[in-house]
Q: What sequence folds into this?
């Protein structure tokens, strides 16, 4: 299992000969640039090669005219510990997902832990432990933002302060614990927000036996920061209710792979019609009953682009920059000062598409040729995607 110490430094890295640079910025999804310069894990220049200081790089990568995009951010995962999931008893799922272009994952609760504590001191201890453990351990280099407690009846404002003081920044899906009424959830979501903890609410029918229904009125009343899996996980609310949520709430619209695909498309299209595409973010909701999907994020991009008729370059922003902005992450956008977390892609071999974006519009999954996190190459040609037509090459050090 490939593990990266979070302290590893990339030095100076130059990526040249980029054929298509996707920015992650929904207002300007394609950049007119062919070169990126990185220093110690952060982007220091974006532009044309002649305008960039490319001298004395430790690593030079020839992108061979392939596409570079910000690494994908999975807004909704359920990790437990390490690179193991008890939900499907699988190891290596995070490293495998990195091979699907994902560089950051956000926990919506460590709910699959066998014997998960539901008493208040226990749930707080679990969240703090999960936050610490994933802060110290990055399977495949992936940044797993974990430690997302499932709120239970009886929690008081001091509990949220304690969690925030201990480094917890997320709430697990509201509704998975005993707090299911809108008014109760609203009070706890407000306490969380007051102390800088971002919240997500489960939306739709029960995911597995033992979980429950959260309808549109509860979602609106709770007013969590993220309308978690608005397309259900799996069972969705009616399309009319989902569209009502998009319209009446101003919160993030999260669409997941392990949800209702028809409603996924309806929600994305509703957001575009309401002129708030910046609110749409993508996740997998894996691992789940449907399994582990290393290509789940790429499959969502292909689904929304092909069947939803949304240009692929915009859908990539749902999976990168939108999430980064809504969740205050230092990744997801190609900008000076941001983390050098990238996925290199090309159209899959023998796709009917003319180029990468056209192949995705036709419903094909792109081929991943390389993944970089913090300026460090984490994989070359993906072991999971269909083979990319062209892949980047690491040239010998130039110093
Ligand atoms: Zn859920």
A:
């Amino acid at each position: 299992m490939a593990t990266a110490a979070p302290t590893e430094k990339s030095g100076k890295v130059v990526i040249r000969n980029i054929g298509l640079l996707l920015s992650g910025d929904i207002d300007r999804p394609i950049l007119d640039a062919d070169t990126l310069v990185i220093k110690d894990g952060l982007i220091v220049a974006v532009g044309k090669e002649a305008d960039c200081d490319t001298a004395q790089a430790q690593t030079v990568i020839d992108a061979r005219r392939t596409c570079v995009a910000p690494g994908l951010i999975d807004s909704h995962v359920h990790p437990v510990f390490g690179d193991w999931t008890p939900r499907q008893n699988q190891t290596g799922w995070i490293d495998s997902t990195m091979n699907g272009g994902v560089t950051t994952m956000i926990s919506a609760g460590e709910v699959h832990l066998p014997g998960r504590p539901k008493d208040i001191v226990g749930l707080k201890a679990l969240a703090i432990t999960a936050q610490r453990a994933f802060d110290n351990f990055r399977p495949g280099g992936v940044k797993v933002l974990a430690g997302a407690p499932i709120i239970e009846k009886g929690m008081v404002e001091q509990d949220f302060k304690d969690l925030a003081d201990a480094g917890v920044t997320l709430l697990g899906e509201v509704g998975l614990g005993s707090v299911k009424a809108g008014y109760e959830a609203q009070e706890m979501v407000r306490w969380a927000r007051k102390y800088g903890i971002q919240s997500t609410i489960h939306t739709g029918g029960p995911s597995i036996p033992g979980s429950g229904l959260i309808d549109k009125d509860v979602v609106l009343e709770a007013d969590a920061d993220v309308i978690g899996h608005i397309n259900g996980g799996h069972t969705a609310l009616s399309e009319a209710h989902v569209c009502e949520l998009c319209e009446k709430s101003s919160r993030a619209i999260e669409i997941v792979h392990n949800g209702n695909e028809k409603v996924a498309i309806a929600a994305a299209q509703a957001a575009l019609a309401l002129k708030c595409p910046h609110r749409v973010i993508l996740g997998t909701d894996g691992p789940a009953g449907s399994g582990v999907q290393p290509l789940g994020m790429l499959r969502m991009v292909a689904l929304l682009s092909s069947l939803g008729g949304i240009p692929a370059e915009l859908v990539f922003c749902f999976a990168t920059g939108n999430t980064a902005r809504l969740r205050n992450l230092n990744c997801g956008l190609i900008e000076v000062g941001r983390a050098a977390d990238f996925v290199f892609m090309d159209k899959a071999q023998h796709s009917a598409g003319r180029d990468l974006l056209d192949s995705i519009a036709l419903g094909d999954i792109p081929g991943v040729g390389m993944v970089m996190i913090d300026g460090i190459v984490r994989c070359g040609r993906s072991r999971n995607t269909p083979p990319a037509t062209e892949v980047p090459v690491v040239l010998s050090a130039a110093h």
